[in-house]
Structures are given as structure tokens and as C-alpha cells.
Amino acid sequence: MRTIDSLGDLSGKTVLVRSDFNVPLKDGVITDDGRIRAALPTIKRLLDAGAAVIVAAHLGRPGGKVNPDYSLAPVATRLSELLDQPVILAEDVTGDSAKAVAAALEPGQVALLENVRFDARETSKVDAERQELAAEYAALADAFVSDGFGVVHRKQASVYDIAELLPSAAGELVFKEIDSLSKATDNPARPYVVILGGSKVSDKLGVIANLLTKADALLIGGGMAFTFLKAEGYEVGKSLLEADQIDTVKGYLATAKENGVDIVLPVDVVVAPEFAADAPATVVPVSAIPADQMGLDIGPESAALFADHILKAKTVAWNGPMGVFEFEAFAGGTKGVAGALEETDAFTVVGGGDSAAAVRILGFDENKFSHISTGGGASLELLEGKTLPGIAVLED
Ligand code: ADP
Ligand code: MG
User: Fold this and answer.
1) Are 194 and 218 in contact (CB under 8 A)?
2) Quick check: CB of 355 below 6 Å from ligand 1?
3) Sign of CA dihedral 72, 48, 143, 173
4) Which residues of 295-322 are buried (b: 16+ CB within 10 A; e: fewer)?
5) 324, 361, 380: which to mutate for ligand 1, most atoms within 8 A of CB?
6) 296 CB less than 6 Å from ligand 1?
7) How many CB atoms lie within 10 A of CB 104?
8) What are the residues whose beta carbon lies below 5 Å from ligand 2 (ion)?
9) Residue 250 catalytic?
10) Does the C-beta of 3 come closer than 6 Å to ligand 1?
11) What is the best residue among 32, 199, 382 to mutate for testing ligand 1's pocket, by most ligand atoms within 8 Å of CB?
């Protein structure tokens, strides 16, 4: 993967950077600026090198149309505060305003294009449409730096096509993400233990299939555990169940056995009569889930069992909360797993938006994890063993 060094002397050059500024907003206020902070090292490095920097990014899903609700204006303001210098926001993506801003931009200055998803060509499935927009981006700058890790699994104009038109390289964030995640996905130090959770099995089928040939143990918690438990013959009451995946899961259990991969399921669960923060919680063994209750977390014995596996591993990857951690009564399993990851000296990576949020919300020390990914979909696709288009295009 080409790095910023490969771009040579950038002094006096204009560099277009693709960042991931898809931050959560509530009533026009950014509630978590983590993604903007994660983009700073690359932008600062380019400014220090004497470049003028134009950032391209998307926010939400405006559906290829201009929609002021999805303007990057709040991001421009926050970026300006964090950089402690003005950030000029263009009024369009590649139109007259963007061209004028780019033409007037001096070394050391920063501009931001409007939401790239205001232009339907950005995410078009038609190559020629994306390439046309990419050529318009390319006309604004001398070089391209890909730093939006959250979008590198997308074949989009500002991620993929532009990299074919300008001298291009991976930014600091993308480099760090790939470097860290590949330690878990290529030749991991063993034992290699993967913990999967979250709400749906079907979201993570590809990952499970790939790990059946790679991991030493697969610990399954969260809502997806109930489809596995059902496949093993347990009754799961009102718990999340994907009945149409039971046969696939049975196949996975068989393959795991053949390959000597240990699939570890919960032995107890925390159940409640309904999905609510104040629902009365009871711990039951998986063999005694009441028909009128739902499992909302793995139980304490399961959390201890999972922690045991984690503490024996040399590489641990975690994706997906063990329970409905948003409700205090059902956060125990996720805390147990996060605590073991915090404690171990193994190489630990966390992927998945909700898992990363859980680490922060539940008060764990992010510095005690080897790597917490900023990209949910992209990190999952790496765990799946897929080639990401936005990365492949930066390889020599
Ligand atoms: P990530 O973003 O880390 O990949 P997911 O999006 O797959 O994770 O899943 C996160 C969601 O799964 C959380 O909002 C959590 O409340 C939910 N969840 C976890 N366990 C259960 C469960 N037993 N029943 C219902 N929802 C669950
Ligand atoms: Mg999620």
C-alpha cells in the first residue's frame, strides 16, 4: 500500500483528502466527534508539508440530492476548532463554488467540499458516471490521499475512482487501520480467538464462514447466539431468532468440528419478559429459557467462560456486543468481554460501531486495547477475508 511518503515533495501542491466525517448529529449538533479527530493526523501532516488541503467527505444518506439537513457545515465548524484555523466550506461538491475555493486555496489552508453524496454520481453503480465525477475531483487537486477508513470497502468516486486519476496514497488513519487489522487477519499469533455478537447472524455470515478456517475459537454471544442455540436443539423463547438461518448455522457447527475450531456458545443467559431498560432480569441456564421471555445478555457463567478463552489467546478480535449493553441490566456480558480484552497482553482488535461505542460508554480504557477500529463495515469485510476496493487501488 502506498503511503504519503510515496507522493514526494508536497510543498505548494493541492492535496484532496477523502476523510470519514460521517458523525452522529442531534438537532444539528455533533454528539461524537471521534471520526473528525481521527482524521486530524493526516490533515496536519499535509499542512506541515506545505500543501493546501481539500477534504471530501459524506454525511448520512441524502440520496444523491442536495439536502441542507445533511450539510457538512457543522463538521466544518468542528474541524476548524480542532485544527485551530479556518476551514472554508464550498457550497457544492465539484461545482462553481468548489472550483473557486480550490483555485484560491493557499498552502497551509484547508477547505471542505460539500457532502459528496449530494451528487448521485458518487455512489453510482455505473462506472462511467463515477469516473466522470472523479475527473471533476481530480481537476481540483494535484494528489489524492485516501483516509476515510469507514468507506474503503466502497467502490465510490471519491474513494476508488479518483485514486486511479491522481498520484494517490493511504493516509495515516487508513494505514494504521490496515496495519493493525491485518495482524489479526493474516497469520495471527495463536491461539486466535474471535468473539462475535450483535443483533443478527445474517449480518455476519460471511465473517463466520471465513473464520471457520482461520480462528482457533469462535465465541458467540449477543442476539446471534440464539440462532446457534436453537441449531443445537435448545428452546430460546422470545429471543432474537433467525429461523431461516438455522440450517446454515448447523452447517457451520459441523464445519467447525471438522476443522477443529472450537465454537463456544453461552451456557447461561439473562432473560426478561420484554425489551426494556426496566424489565425484570433473571439469569437462567440455556436449557431453561422460559417460552414467554427473551434473552438480552449472556449470563455471568458464560462471561467467565468467554473471559477464560480470551485470557488464553495471543490474538483476539471482537465484533458485536454480548447483550443489549445500552440497558444497564443487560450490559454485564459485554463488560465481562471488554474487561478481559482490557486485561490481556494479547493483540486485541475491536471492530464494529456499536462494539467500539460500548468500550467507551461502559468506561473502559481505550489505550489498553491494541486497536479500536473506526470502520464497522470495512473492518468486518477484512475479517471476512475480502479485498477492499479502496485499498486494492492503493497497492502497487
Ligand atoms: P456492531 O456495530 O459492533 O457490529 P451490531 O450492530 O451487530 O454490532 O449489534 C449491536 C446491537 O446488538 C446493539 O444495539 C445491542 O443492543 C444488540 N444486541 C446485542 N445482544 C442482543 C440480544 N440478545 N437481543 C437483542 N439485541 C441485542
Ligand atoms: Mg452496529
Assistant:
1) yes
2) yes
3) negative
4) bbbbbeebbebbbebbeebebbbbbbbb
5) 324
6) yes
7) 11
8) 353-354
9) no
10) no
11) 199
Q: Can you give the pLDDT of all 396 residues of the chain as single tens digits?
A: 999 999 999 999 999 999 999 998 998 899 889 899 999 999 999 999 999 999 999 999 999 999 999 999 999 999 999 999 999 999 999 999 999 999 999 999 999 999 999 999 999 999 999 999 999 999 999 999 999 999 999 999 999 999 999 999 999 999 999 999 999 988 899 999 999 999 988 889 889 999 998 999 999 999 999 999 999 999 999 999 999 999 999 999 999 999 999 999 999 999 999 999 999 999 999 999 999 999 999 999 999 999 999 999 999 999 999 999 999 999 999 999 999 999 999 999 999 888 998 998 999 999 999 999 988 889 999 988 899 999 999 998
Cα Dmax for the chain: 69
State the Cα–Cα distance between residues 396 and 1, nearest whole angstrom.
7
The DSSP call for residue 110 is: E
Cell (9 digits) for 377: 463495515
